[in-house]
């Protein structure tokens, strides 16, 4: 027979352009069918990855200590029942700045020191568990006392193992040497440190043999522990509320620390609030004592004068002069007192002492200096701010330096003002002395006894009046102190955190991360498998990657395990495989309906794609339809037809081509009527030259005289050129592609062969297709006739077992 070259050039151009478009489409877009196939195949792996992610989340939660947080909310609210001696300038500080100052105070060393004294934080007790170590806060079956003045085992694990109720052993660190047995309650020496171990009422026999240890925390470690876990923040500046929270592995400890911080903060606030008031009380008390002494001396002098003179008579002419002298003396005493107070202020400023008391004293005087009081108040506030910055944990040299400059400037202004004030007072005293001298000169003319009496009465009256004034002020200030309450209240005290709701780790978030990680790696797996997917799995991929029409689909044969190709259509004529081959036979009739004699070649790219299986069973199906069929095995390098049809390979096509045997001598019968075959025969050294010879064409002509269909099992075209030579002679070249075996790159070779050799009638068959690909899509395009014909009455394949299903899912 001659080589088929196609109908015309236009048809060739059409197929060539169509192939180029298909190739371009396959390389520039996503194959959704292939992607779905990969996704479906990867679902078990994705589920396994998600399960691994959940397992990892569970293990993380299982072996991670839970962190609990307890918090309280306090509100700053200064209230007093009686506001006396109120300093000017109070309340000028902004609310936010004051709140931030309180935050710094709570986190300062003052509060930490009190907290350490009021809570058992320095020594912590632990027990080693199988999974996590647990701190025995307020639940330890033993306690330890030690000499803090001579102790150097800070921040180390000291193990205590009870061998009985009365004996125990110790060990410093995990690698330390175990000591001999000690007696409970007896002092021991451990690396030069003296300590005593006691048991308490919680100790029982279950604790014998358990591994306990305790840690004595140093001040630095304890401060770091508090700083790292304590959070103090302004909650609402307008409402003046502050939030105090503490994080800990032990939820009871977290609650107790917050409550204790509230308590020590209250104590610190009360102490700081009463400090200024106490200084004022001390100043008033000292002045009262001094005035009382002067009053007693004046009373004694008056009593002595009366005893000596035995008279209180005063001449009427002396009343005016005496009254003026008395007023001048009173004014002079007040000026001296003020001069003394200003001198005291100068000394306190030089010593950088607290000025609260002297400010209060200034306000007690009848003649007040508003400017001096304001400057003293500002200086006192600056000194208080400097002390606060120095005592808080956040103090820094920059802010202290700025405050020192402001304090120095204020001191210079006050010293200037005090110097001017004292000079003015001294001038006034001099004027009073001159006036008194004039009045005294007038009185000198009076009896000296009357003058002395008037002087004593005058001094006695002054001291008595001033003493009563000081008494009244001290009582009023005492009442105001009694009416002062703490300037904050606890709106929300610390509560015991819920055991099932730690702040870390968050179960929902951890499990969500596990699921997300599983899905992420699952999507990555799908993407990698899709990018690495280089085999044909479905009809859709076959259509996208080649321009040759798909003649049909042969499903996977699971009836029995076949190590080699076999003729099976006669054994299971109603199976799905037989029906699919019938569908191919029907479609072959459409391709060559005008020819009664047909030459069909069956080839593939490489060995193992099932061309012998397809050729054998296709020949059997065609023969079962009444046509005479002969199958030629031209794969002379690796013949398999005689194995599939249970024949011999002593003589065959190789011996016929060299005219050693005739066709009749080499033809063998099969179990199917009208179906014969000729094996390949002994392997010749030059198969390609034999096929290219004239003898091969003569053999085909002879066979067409006796048979309706000549079916050729050709060699793989990807390995040798024999297959291409045979395809040129065939009426219908069939190219076999095996699902999940044939590479997509092979299909490019199909199009290349079609273009190069002008094989316009070439068709492809998808072999060994999974049932899901076959039933779900394959028969919906062009070759559904045969499928519809047999569907519903053929014998069902055996149902796969659960193990085979799982295996196929992960394959």
TrEMBL record:
It is found in: Cell inner membrane. Keywords: ATP-binding, Cell inner membrane, Cell membrane, Coiled coil, Kinase, Membrane, Nucleotide-binding, Transferase, Transmembrane, Transmembrane helix, Tyrosine-protein kinase. It holds the Pfam family Wzz. Residues 29-117 form the Polysaccharide chain length determinant N-terminal domain. CDD domains: BY-kinase. Its EC number is 2.7.10.2. Its main location: membrane. It comes from the Bacteria. Residues 598-756 form the AAA domain. Residues 274-308, 372-420 form a coiled coil. It catalyses: L-tyrosyl-[protein] + ATP = O-phospho-L-tyrosyl-[protein] + ADP + H(+). GO terms for molecular function: ATP binding; identical protein binding; non-membrane spanning protein tyrosine kinase activity. It is a multi-pass membrane protein. GO terms for cellular component: plasma membrane. The chain crosses the membrane at residues 42-61, 509-532. Belongs to the etk/wzc family. Belongs to the CpsD/CapB family. This is non-specific protein-tyrosine kinase.
């Amino acid at each position: 027979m001659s080589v088929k070259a196609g109908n015309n050039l236009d048809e060739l151009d059409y197929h060539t352009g169509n192939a180029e478009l298909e190739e371009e489409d396959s390389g520039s877009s996503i194959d959704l069918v292939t992607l779905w196939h990969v996704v479906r195949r990867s679902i078990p792996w994705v589920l396994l990855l998600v399960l691994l992610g959940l397992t990892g989340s569970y293990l993380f939660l299982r072996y991670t200590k839970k962190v609990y947080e307890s918090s309280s909310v306090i509100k700053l609210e200064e209230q007093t029942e009686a506001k006396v001696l109120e300093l000017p300038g109070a309340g000028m500080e902004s609310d936010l700045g004051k709140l931030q100052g309180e935050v710094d105070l709570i986190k300062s060393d003052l509060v930490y020191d009190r907290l350490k004294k009021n809570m058992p934080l320095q020594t912590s007790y632990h027990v080693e568990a199988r999974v996590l170590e647990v701190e025995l806060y307020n639940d330890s079956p033993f306690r330890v006392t030690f000499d803090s003045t001579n102790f150097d085992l800070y921040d180390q694990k000291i193990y205590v193992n009870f061998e009985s109720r009365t004996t125990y052993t110790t060990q410093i660190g995990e690698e330390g040497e175990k000591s001999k047995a000690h007696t409970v309650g007896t002092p021991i020496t451990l690396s030069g440190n003296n300590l005593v171990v006691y048991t308490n009422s919680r100790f029982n026999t279950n604790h014998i043999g358990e591994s306990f240890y305790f840690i004595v925390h140093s001040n630095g470690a304890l401060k770091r522990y508090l700083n790292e876990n304590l959070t103090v923040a302004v909650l609402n500046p307008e409402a003046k509320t502050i939030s105090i929270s503490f994080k800990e592995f032990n939820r009871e400890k977290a609650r107790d620390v917050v409550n204790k911080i509230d308590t020590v903060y209250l104590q610190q606030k009360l102490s700081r609030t009463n400090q200024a008031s106490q200084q004022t009380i001390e100043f008033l008390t000292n002045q009262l004592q001094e005035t009382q002494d002067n009053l007693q001396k004046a009373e004694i002098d008056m009593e002595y004068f009366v005893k000596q003179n035995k008279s209180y008579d005063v001449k009427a002419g002396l009343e005016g002069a005496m009254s003026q002298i008395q007023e001048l003396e009173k004014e002079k005493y007040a000026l001296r007192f003020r001069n003394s107070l200003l001198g005291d202020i100068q000394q306190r400023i030089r010593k950088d002492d607290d000025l609260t008391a002297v400010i209060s004293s200034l306000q007690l005087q009848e003649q007040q200096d508003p400017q001096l009081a304001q400057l003293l108040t500002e200086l006192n506030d600056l000194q208080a701010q400097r002390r606060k910055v120095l005592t808080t944990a956040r103090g820094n040299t920059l802010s202290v330096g700025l405050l020192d400059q402001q304090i120095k400037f204020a001191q210079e202004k006050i010293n200037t003002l005090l110097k001017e004030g004292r000079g003015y007072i001294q001038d006034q005293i001099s004027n009073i002395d001159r006036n008194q001298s004039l009045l005294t000169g007038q009185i000198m003319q009076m009896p000296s006894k009357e003058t002395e009496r008037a002087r004593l009465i005058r001094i006695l009256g002054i001291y008595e009046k001033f003493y009563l004034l000081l008494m009244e002020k001290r009582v009023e200030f005492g009442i105001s102190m009694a009416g002062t309450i703490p300037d904050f209240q606890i709106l929300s005290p610390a509560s015991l955190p819920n055991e099932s709701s730690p702040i870390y780790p968050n179960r929902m978030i951890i499990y969500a991360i596990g699921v997300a990680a599983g899905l992420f790696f699952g999507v990555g797996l799908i993407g990698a498998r899709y990018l690495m997917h280089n085999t044909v799995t479905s009809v859709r991929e076959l259509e996208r990657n080649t321009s040759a029409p798909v003649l049909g689909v042969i499903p996977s044969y699971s009836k029995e395990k076949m190590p080699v190709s076999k003729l099976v259509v006669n054994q299971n004529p109603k199976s799905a495989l037989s029906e699919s081959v019938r569908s191919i036979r029907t479609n072959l009739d459409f391709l060559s309906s005008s020819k009664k004699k047909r030459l069909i070649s069956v080839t593939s790219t490489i060995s193992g794609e099932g061309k012998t299986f397809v050729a054998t069973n296709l020949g059997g199906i065609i023969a079962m339809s009444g046509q005479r069929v002969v199958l030629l095995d031209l794969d002379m390098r690796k013949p398999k037809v005689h194995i599939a049809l249970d024949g011999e390979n002593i003589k065959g096509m190789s011996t016929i081509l060299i005219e050693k045997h005739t066709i009749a001598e080499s033809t063998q019968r099969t179990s199917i009527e009208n179906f014969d075959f000729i094996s390949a025969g002994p392997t010749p050294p030059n198969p390609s030259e034999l096929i290219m010879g004239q003898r091969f064409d003569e053999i085909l002509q002879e066979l067409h005289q006796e048979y309706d269909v000549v079916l050729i099992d050709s060699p793989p075209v990807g390995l040798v050129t024999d297959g291409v030579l045979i395809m040129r002679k065939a009426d219908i070249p069939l190219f076999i592609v095996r699902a999940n075996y044939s590479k997509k790159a092979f299909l490019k070779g199909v199009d290349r062969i079609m273009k190069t050799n002008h094989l316009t009638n070439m068709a492809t068959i998808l072999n060994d297709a999974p049932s899901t690909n076959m039933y779900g899509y394959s028969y919906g395009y062009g070759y559904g006739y045969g499928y519809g014909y047999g569907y519903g009455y053929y014998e069902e394949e055996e149902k796969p077992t659960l193990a085979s299903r799982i295996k196929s899912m992960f394959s």
